[in-house]
Fold:
Amino acid sequence: MLRWLQNYPHFLEILWHFFENGLAPLKRLFNPNGFFEPAILVIEKAGKRAVFNCQMCGQCILHSTGMTCPMNCPKNLRNGPCGGVRQNGHCEVKPEMVCVWVEAYERSLKMPTYGRQLAELQPPLNNQLEGSSSWINMFNEIDTDYPEGWVSTQDVPVEFHLEGHHASSK
Amino acid sequence: MLPQNKPACSRLEETLRAGHFAVTAELNPPDSADPNDVYKAAEVLSGVCDGINAVDASGANTHISSVGICALLTRVGYEPVYQVTCRDRNRIAIQGDLLGAAAMGVQNVLCLSGDDVTVGDQPEAKRVFDLDSIQLIRTVRMMRDESVLLSGRKLTTPPCFFIGAAANPFIPPLDWRPQRLAKKIAAGAQFIQTQYCFDIPRFKEYMNQVRDQGLDKQAFILAGVGPLKSAGAANYMRTKVPGVHIPDEIVERMKKTPKKKQQEEGKKICLDMIEQIREIEGVAGIHIMAYRQEELVAEIVEEAGLLPRPIANVRLDQPAFCINA
Structure:
């Protein structure tokens, strides 16, 4: 198990930065239904499962959620903690588990590059992508094909500053 | 700044915009198919608050639905606060219900994630959570302002909703809570109802952070309060009800009181809290959750000096709406 890697979020964000930008020239290998898809799926599933307990939602936002997989939240929340977190920081539903969002917040503070993305509004999940490769979906912009209505509206402008974080909505 | 250019959607919004200290209260949802049970529960609240919250299977227990309660209340002209959780319905059902509610005259919506199914009396049920609370808030605003559904399909007539959200300043990650509020406001929340506020020092700290960011100018914040029925109830609430934080000294104060006087003491604590909350800058009102003690709400509002309400909602205890007739 490689879960301990999650406690080095800065290292992981550097890795992600390299992956996202360094592999862009190889984009065409990441083709939906392409020759490499089965291999990519196996690698992504095994790697991300070992480190993040990835649930293969197919629209990965790990770098925006403190390198903590939000799909491990029993309520599948994508935008932050619910109102039921216990005083010891554990989950309302699974008392033995630390709240995904408590971890996400702490880790995001150690992420100078992507940490502030925690403040971004995440759109509703596309349930059709479950089980598919988020890498393929990313390189082909399938995961950012948000519902038409969602895209048609803007966020209300809110400025927000917090020690370690600076965020403002678009 | 709060959008002053558009007309208010509801009386509650009008009350808050006019700068009045608002009072809302939660209705105890009957397990009944008799409309009179809803009217009876609402009767004691209608004259003393600016909006009655119709809960959506609170604590993940089945009760009469929030949309049902709202239908009954709007039928007599009352403006309730329609609570919507993401636990039981997917985006298709939620958007449909929002339109239905709006068509019946609902003008206030409170968007929640919802208690998990495991805390209710049917833990074996399937949880949905197709949207989360923030996505729900943004979806409601989208329907209102852009007049579309998530799919992009146009609405013939958009709903007019005063959009609310919940906040819990009392639980981890504490430092993130104000930012989460900012996120809800960015999504479209215009008023906020908080979880039970028993820890005043913590709430003050939270409000300091909220004011520093000017968030109190972007949404109306209503602090949650409520009378504890007994020491046992206090203990139950803080151990069994998700997200409720009651400091030890409050529980001690209840325990020290003889059993017969505990309900009275619970009411006194509630009044103390209201007094202290009113002194905190940036708080726009209170939200009273008096679970199974609705009869106390009128006393609390009166003794807190919050009567009469500045902009009257419909009085259900007036002869014009004589329910049993």
